[in-house]
Sequence to fold (971 residues):
Amino acid sequence: MFGLFRKIPFPIALIIPIEIVMMFLLIFPLIVEIWVSLTNWTPLLGVNWWHADFLGFENYYKIAIKDHRFINAVIRTSIIATICVTVELGLGLLYATLLLKDFPGKRIVVSILLLPMMIIPLVAGYNFFMLFIENGPINQILGFILGKKVELHWLSDPNLGLVAVMIADIWEWTPLMFLILMAGLASVPQNQVRAAVSLGASNFQIFRYLTIPLIKHIILIAVVIRGMELFKIFDVVFILTKGGPGTSTETISFYLYSAGFTYMRMGYIAAGSFIVLAIFLTASYYILKPVMKEII
Amino acid sequence: MKVVLEQLTKRFDELVAVNNLNLEIKEGEIVSLLGPSGCGKTTTLNMIAGFERPTEGAVYFDDRNMNNVHPKNRNVGMVFQEYAIFTTMTAFENIAFGLRVRKLPKTEITETVERIAESLNLTDTLHKNINKLNLSELQRVAMARTLSTQPSLLLLDEPLSNLDASLREKTRVELNRLHDRWGITMVYVTHDQTEAISLSSRIAVMSAGKLQQFETPEIIYKRPANLFVAQFIGNPPSNILEGAIKESEGNWYFDTYGFRLDISNLRNEFSKVKHCEKAALGFRAEDIGVRMSRENGEYTAGTIYNLELLGYESIVDIKLAKTIIRALVPQNFHAVPGDTAFFKVTAEKVNLFDLETGKNFLS
Amino acid sequence: MKEVAYNEESKLFGVIRFSLIAVIVLFTMFPIYWMVATSFKPVQEWTPPKPIYFPKDPTLYNYKTVFLGPGRAKGGWWGSDQGVRDSLESTGAKIRISGESSFFIPFVNSMIVCVTSTFLSISIGLLAAYAISRYRFGGNFFPFFILSARMFPPIAVVIPLVVMFSTLRLLDTHFGLIIVYTGFTIPFSVWMIKSFLDDIPHELEEAAIIDGMTKFQAIIKVTIPLAKGGIAATSLFIFILNWSEFLIAFLLTSTRVITLPILISRYFSTTQGHLYGPQAALGTIATIPVIIFGFMIQKHLARGLTFGAVKK
Fold:
């Protein structure tokens, strides 16, 4: 038996475990999912999934064109993702720039700044829930700054709810961008910077013409990774607003979840998910294409 | 532009990297800062460029104290060891960088860049991406980039270290040519004495943060200021024999086990030579005559230790008591280790050192 | 004004920088502080008309509730707030139905699942990362393909998984969850470890092989110790991902295997009012293992998480 093992080329042997896992957890479910998306299967039918009626692309059509709630969820999630990624990127860059130089206690400060990442999103959602209630600290602090009484209904207002969700996500994930960008900034070759300085460049010019091009690929990867997770945002919405009031803060994942539990039309949901997957794959392909060679 | 370093000192906590350095570099000179790793030459260069602030002392450009001037305002051109080319830009953009940050109009930038590129044979590669250029082209781009802003001072940090021998030779010629054409003052950091000797009008030899000698290459070679310089400069380095300087019956001698040299003529020329129990005699390999037979009393006996062929010459190692002396011999010199050989040192070319201070009596 | 040297900064900038950093630290710590502070607040301080920043009457009762389970902690100190008592009871009732009344079992469940799954994810990921790094396995396609596994909304993947698992009787089991968590974090472990492996020159392994080791030994004794920092950072990241995971666990389990996030969500969905105190206590407790893990390996966190984009 061992003789057989010896014949397998080494790299192939390495890949076997992951192939098994991927096959089991990704490929097979994916195939089932594709099939389901083309049927009208729901557990309520009481039959096995392979007995469900074939519907062709009807699910896709219905959810992409006719389902306004889905379309709104997609648009809303895209907006959330775009705003959050931008803000997290900007803040992360700010943090990284501020903490570029050494100072006493830098290590402690960095550890503190990384804490939000370590909090369970559900717990973070709950913390922000406490902070955003009408008689909570956020309203009080805002009132203090603005000099008048502030009683914003963060969690029950359709627009403010979205803002609350975004603030919670930004709080939790800016540290990740910060970490990535900090490493990126540190990788800028010091001699190139010095060359630029001796040629008369100001700090801003160095940043714009030298630093950013050098870390462009890092920034893009961070954007794709964070964007990817933001598209699936669920936990915070679940806690803070439960998609409400009504459906005004529903994200894609939340809609699929509630549609799943309410209507149990799994084929429909599967179709929606594939549409989301397609959107994101295309987006990330075009974002990463210019810097592909530096990543692989 | 002339550069003056006055009592320049740089301390990093406990370490004194540069210790009370005083140097006057004339306008248009090429000066090398030469020394082994850690001698402080790069730190000195950084202080001239403005990347390090002196702990004590000052750097003057044409009598202006530059201590408080930011490096970006010093108009100093810098060439780094690995060129520090901007990898995200084309060759054109690299060369244009200095002009672009000064917000010069586009047409002027293009004109200047093309002009410089032509003088360095770079016109064809201007719009190529950096990673497609070969080493020689990269180097010229680095030079062009530095020259684009017409700096009055050029600082080079070991620019030839990562080149092979032939490229090094070509670049040396190129640098000389550039210097003749543009007349810029140049300060050059290197640990390679061949570079220093062939390029510079004067060399500043440094060791452990201190200046050892600042003279023209000839003087440094012929009259090293101390033992360190004698042993650092020259390939092969100076032969050093430890012994004593004695006077006897009006004649002066250098005495050591198995060897004695009459240095009366030298003493007449250099009155600083005195009695010294702990002295050292320094002489170069090319100032030794070697024979296989004792000609007259002036030749001393020794044993052949090694013979190394160099091509048109050879180096022979002769063992004398506990020391080994290296001598340059013509191509047709034949001998085997173990043979007895006889050598003579040209008294006029030697240097005498005080072993305790290391200083040269004759400088 | 005295101009500054190259790597110094003027006093003014220093002050600005310091204040900005202080603001950022405050912003970062505030929600966490609020959680910890609330965990020590007695019920009357949870939602007063004006928020209380520092507990006037700190108590350990919230923690007691969490440790013993709301069902058992009813009565006693809660005073006469019937609403709260009812909330406690309803929560306790829900949880008692499923068999756990305190946080211990969910905590242990989470630990088992997360630690095992992290370990598996790193091990399997390491092998694949090595193959991609050294042999360029799969060219450009394979690594991207692995990453795309994370682009799919979890909801959708769960559907077929539920079906598969119920057939295989893996629903509501530790093993089932471990498998899923491993699969879901493998993309990250592969990508991150690959980037760390890329930094280690091949020559070191080759030298070890020339010295007599087999390829396998060379990898174990030479390459992996050098990648230790990166592997440590990756494990922390993956552990955090697993520990925080809610939706999948929620959909794939019901009564037997309850993880910590599920317990947290149950505390939340009470019928009357919100149990801010115990909720905060539970949140605080849930954060501690991550911080401990992070602290333990911080020496190894040599490099940031750049997902393979930083090349030396």
Q: What stands out?
A: Chain C has 14 helices and no strands. Chain C touches chain A through 92 residues (CB under 8 Å).
